[in-house]
Task: structure prediction
Amino acid sequence: MAQTPQQRRANDKYAKHEAAKRGKSKATASKNSSKPTLSTGWVALLAFVVCGGLLFELLRVVPELWSAIVSVFNRLLS
Result:
């Protein structure tokens, strides 16, 4: 059985009312929000894992380099 024009209007009115109760449609909401895929904590942890080894290695090497530089200056001055 086909819809009558009166039923069609009533269905459209009901659909608009229900859509207003739900809020914005998904298509409209997805355009405005772009949520990052990784949280800040995970990015910080990843940066520490990647760069932390380099930092610890520099902390180990710098005193050795400093002592080598001091010994060279001591040989030159004496």
Remarks:
- The chain is about 80% helix and 0% strand.
